[in-house]
Specification:
single chain, about 425 residues, alpha+beta, seven-stranded mixed beta sheet, three-stranded mixed beta sheet, 16 helices, 16 strands, about 15% strand, globular
Length: about 425
């Protein structure tokens, strides 16, 4: 199964920030979506049908899951997106490939091997490229030894996300005198004190050592606020507003907002923390992931904390690893271990093979951080000046998003500068 519903799409974020008038035309028996509002409604309808499929899939009602996926295929086949919305068109193509992939999974799970292979091939023709997911997907046990399956798997091996990361160029030392410093708001700030009191974080954190407190707060946020990668929350982006938004609407929030909420809680407890946007090599890839990098004075290092998946990573000796250390180990082929209870929304257990070797291997190519970590660092309703620092491999071409960005972002290849320890 391919977990499309956990994705954060940059396009959908921009879509929800905008509005448009309704205009629907018909051409070649297809509805042509021409406005942002129409496209937004299209993706909402997709989510509705997908949720029905996903519930059937979880309950192992695969015949009913197949019917829901076929409904999605028909829905996609009878709808087109106007060519002016390039990002939306790309995302629809990716979703179509995922729908066919999940349909192939359900056919395989119901012993319909011929249909499973035909539909899997159709998924690849549409654009499915997730080699590691297909390689390790237990849904395909019934067809894994089939020559056709092996041939299709070999066909997409060129897109292996881990292999792409392993081919990335090295970082280099640079002059950093003029580069901005990273700032972490002091816990005595009255707004952070309100966060600490509102969530009763002293009780949440407990009386253990620093690491246990970091993990207890992670578990609390993961269980208290649901994740929904397609929802750009209609609230201010501080921990209290994000939590209240979820509780009042029942809607989840995307990975960025989860990481911002968790970040504020750590800051309120006097623990320096960042939220880090982890980005893929392919500029056309609409998916990124935002996690936290938390400073441990106990370890004297940053450690990987992901509230979306309740995840952290260790080495073979049980030592917590940082984002940079995980990246290095994946490139070098050294062991990394995901915590056993890593999961999505307390529903889907995560594996090292999917979460690290595939999903995060794709999203560890380059990074984006803000420089000022504080209460409400990014406002939905007002301008907040917060410069970005981007870390890329030395020969990686700067993404077009960052062209002419000198007023709001700096690009560096200096890994030591980017991951510098917080100053006291």
């Amino acid at each position: 199964m391919n977990m499309k519903n956990i994705r954060l799409t940059i396009f959908f974020l921009a879509l929800l920030l905008s509005c448009g008038h309704v205009c629907m035309s018909q051409q070649s028996n297809k509805h042509i979506l021409k406005t942002q509002l129409e496209i937004g409604l299209f993706f909402e309808k997709y989510d509705e049908i997908y949720d029905v499929y996903h519930d059937f899939y979880k309950d192992k009602q695969f015949d009913k899951a197949i019917l829901s996926l076929k409904e999605l295929v028909t829905f996609f086949d009878t709808t087109a997106i106007d060519s002016q919305w390039v990002d939306a068109m790309i995302y629809k193509e990716e979703m179509t490939a995922d729908v066919y992939y999940n349909l192939a999974c359900c056919y395989a799970l119901t012993a319909q091997k011929k249909l499973a292979l035909e539909t899997l091939e159709k998924s690849i023709r549409v654009g499915y490229k997730d080699y590691r997911n297909m390689l390790n997907d237990s849904d395909f046990e019934s067809i894994r030894e089939d020559k056709k399956f092996k041939s299709l798997l070999e066909e997409i091996k060129q897109y292996d996300r881990l292999a792409i990361l392993q081919k990335s160029s090295a970082y280099i030392k640079e002059k950093i005198d003029t580069l901005p410093q990273f700032v972490y708001q002091d816990s005595v700030d009255y707004r952070l004190m309100n966060v600490r009191e509102f969530f009763d974080l002293d009780s949440v954190a407990g009386d253990g050592d620093e690491i246990s407190k970091i993990l207890n707060i992670l578990h609390f946020v993961h269980k208290a606020i649901r994740h929904d990668g397609g929802n750009y929350a209609l609230c201010e982006f501080d921990a209290i507003d994000i939590y209240n938004y979820h509780k009042s609407t029942g809607k989840g929030v995307n990975c960025r907002h989860l990481a911002i909420a968790l970040n504020e809680m750590y800051l309120s407890m006097g623990i320096p923390s960042r939220y880090v946007t982890c980005m893929p090599y392919d500029e056309k890839d609409q998916d990124c992931h935002v996690i936290n990098s938390v400073w441990s004075s106990q370890y004297q290092k940053w450690i990987w904390i992901d509230p979306t998946f309740e995840a952290y990573v260790k080495d073979e000796n049980g030592n917590f690893l940082s984002i940079q250390e995980v990246r290095e180990r994946l490139i070098e082929g050294r062991p990394v271990f995901l915590n056993e209870d890593a999961n999505w929304n307390n529903e889907n257990k995560q594996t090292k093979e999917y979460y690290l070797d595939s999903y995060m291997a794709k999203n560890l190519y380059w990074f984006d951080c803000v420089t000022n970590y504080c209460f409400n660092p990014e406002s939905r309703y007002r301008y907040v000046e917060n410069k970005h620092v981007v870390l890329t491999p030395s020969t990686y071409e700067t993404p077009s998003t960052y062209e002419n960005s000198s007023d709001w972002a700096v690009i560096t290849h200096d890994v030591d500068y980017f991951w510098q320890a917080p100053t006291k």
